[in-house]
DNA sequence: TTGTAGGCGTTATCAA
DNA sequence: TTGATAACGCCTACAA
């Protein structure tokens, strides 16, 4: 347990006071040039480095932020994390990671743990299960700012960056209509999810904007399990008059749908076309892929959220500073068209 | 900037000393039951929570470990991270993440930064570019233990968990031979990579163990770029006598190979079979997939590495403890056979 | 059973 | 230009 050198050590060697050393190390103008040089020389010799824990303690800051997100196995979130890392590096911050794995209790534990570690701020993308936000509200007491991204609470007075699916979906449905599609179905998620209500609403409005009527029989839902996905798509292809195109809750659901469709002897993009959400990088290598994906800009969302978080943190450090207006930014999604002719 | 309650505050309220409070809060036996109760009651009332930064500072520990890995967009590493997180949670530790993105300089910066933050230990899976290890050796000075996993340095006196590709490759090649394959090619990586030399050596020995001779014309290499991948596979299928099976450097290379093979009008798993490394979860959904993957147990490797790291950390905290023997554990890989009849 | 005092490493304030 | 000292929050050896 040999201790690392401290300014005290340097002070002793040079027979000066610790305050002189402290100042000399940071080139404080009040310290004479000779002294400064001597101090810095010795510091280098004995391999002195400032003990950040001491500073953190003194400044009541840890120079680390927490990131809570569902799962890094989703390319969307690993891209998002890269955005956070980049912003953190630019601000000299560390990133503490926590995967909630879509588990509400785990999310709570992670947040609690980050709070205990006194992170200076937290970025969050919610679990699918999350519908109460006490564990985040609680952070106010500790002056830990929170910025949400992508999966954000349905709640006022929060900071967030999210993505407006309407723009992308409208582009997609318009494209489908221009290609002659008239019956465009929807495979939605479980009713309890906010994302589900959102998808339905946007779907309805996009149909309307294209002068199509909403038909209940081509709207089905899945519980996001493989079985649920298969059941949903089978319901659609079993219809007397199946939809010729389907908007699918997300890419993972779509993978199962494509398998089912092919097993049923149908051809993707000719018998039935798909549009989905997420933009898996792997589509590039698949034989059957959606006509289009709705790009939601993971990196952009997360880095924007991170940058605002740092603004909040830095602003709080200024004594008399006025509070920043909340960030409530919504990025427009965009349709990404794939070459369906592979 | 309203400060959080401290033990001092509690002490003042109850007219006892801070040491009494400190002890009472941790149920120290020397403190009377009444006092203990009174202290804990007030603590609860004013919402006291211990300031970990102060403890960290005092104990010269941060209760966080760093994880440096190439890229979380690879499912292998995101699985590995989950292993680390689970081990960290069990040990009441935080995980600071750093993606090196296969960039040596970035790896160095991350390690430097983690050192500055005085993490209690570091887990590393190296960049493909990394061939010098000074930035890790340097950590000894700060008593920061390092454990490597999967992509480990070629060096003695380090702690690591890695995966022995031989076992899996032998299973795969034996399987291929049992299916009648006699010409089994290899698409290897760039020469400068340790993994490349390793693949070649294992490939050679597995052929030998199956009484096959090494044929240079069916050994090609790629620089891992898309163009390189395509060039490599084209070289093989352009041969007068093409191999009927090919061992491929990794799944990402294989994706390009499969595309090329299909474009050339060949059928995967009948005209040509593949075996690859990584075990992408997505294969399940692909039309053309390798005959088998070599499973390398990301979660198992990383959690084993993490657990040992915590042992090191805890051991170092015991004053007179003898140093632990280094961990140099090698897990056997395993062939995972896919149902090629989809 | 409880209190006092010192220390962890650094910086800021005030004094010299 | 430099030094002494207090403070950050907590713990602990020693004293009472």
TrEMBL record, chains A, B:
Keyword terms of this UniProt record: DNA-binding, Transcription, Transcription regulation
Matches recorded under SUPFAM superfamilies: lambda repressor-like DNA-binding domains, Periplasmic binding protein-like I
GO molecular function, one term: transcription cis-regulatory region binding
Pfam family, one: Peripla_BP_1
Domain HTH lacI-type, chain residue ranges per copy: 5-59
InterPro entries named among the record's database cross-references: HTH_LacI, Lambda_DNA-bd_dom_sf, Peripla_BP/Lac1_sug-bd_dom, Peripla_BP_I
CDD domains in the cross-refs: HTH_LacI, PBP1_LacI_sugar_binding-like
Protein name: LacI family DNA-binding transcriptional regulator
Lineage: Bacteria, Pseudomonadati, Bacteroidota, Sphingobacteriia, Sphingobacteriales
């Amino acid at each position: 347990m040999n201790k690392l050198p401290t300014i005290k050590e340097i002070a002793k060697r040079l027979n000066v006071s610790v305050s002189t050393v402290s100042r000399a190390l940071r080139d404080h103008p009040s310290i004479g040039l000779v002294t400064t040089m001597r101090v810095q020389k010795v510091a280098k010799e004995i391999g002195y480095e400032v003990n950040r824990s001491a500073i953190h303690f003194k400044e009541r800051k840890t120079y680390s932020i927490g990131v809570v997100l569902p799962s890094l196995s989703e390319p969307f979130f690993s891209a998002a994390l890269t955005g956070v890392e980049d912003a953190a590096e630019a601000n000299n911050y560390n990133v503490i990671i926590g995967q909630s794995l879509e588990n509400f209790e785990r999310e709570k534990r992670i947040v609690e743990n980050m709070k205990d570690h006194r992170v200076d701020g937290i970025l969050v993308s919610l679990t699918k299960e999350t519908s109460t936000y006490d564990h985040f509200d609680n952070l106010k007491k500790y002056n830990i700012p929170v910025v949400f991204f992508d999966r954000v609470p349905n709640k006022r007075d929060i900071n967030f960056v999210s993505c407006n699916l309407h723009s992308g979906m409208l582009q997609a449905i318009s494209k489908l209509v221009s290609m002659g599609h008239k019956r465009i179905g929807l495979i939605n998620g479980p009713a309890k999810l906010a994302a589900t209500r959102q998808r339905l609403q946007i779907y309805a409005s996009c149909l309307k904007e294209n002068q199509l009527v909403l038909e209940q029989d081509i709207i089905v839902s899945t519980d996001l399990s493989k079985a649920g996905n298969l059941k949903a798509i089978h319901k659609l292809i079993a219809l007397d008059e199946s939809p010729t195109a389907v908007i699918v809750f997300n890419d993972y659901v779509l993978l199962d749908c494509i398998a089912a469709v092919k097993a049923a002897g149908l051809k993707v993009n000719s018998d039935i076309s798909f549009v989905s959400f997420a933009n898996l990088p792997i589509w590039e290598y698949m034989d059957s892929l959606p006509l289009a994906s709705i790009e939601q800009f993971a990196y952009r969302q997360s880095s924007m959220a991170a940058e605002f978080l740092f603004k909040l943190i830095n602003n709080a450090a200024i004594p008399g500073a006025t509070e920043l207006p909340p960030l409530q930014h919504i990025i427009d999604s965009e349709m990404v068209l794939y070459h369906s002719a592979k």
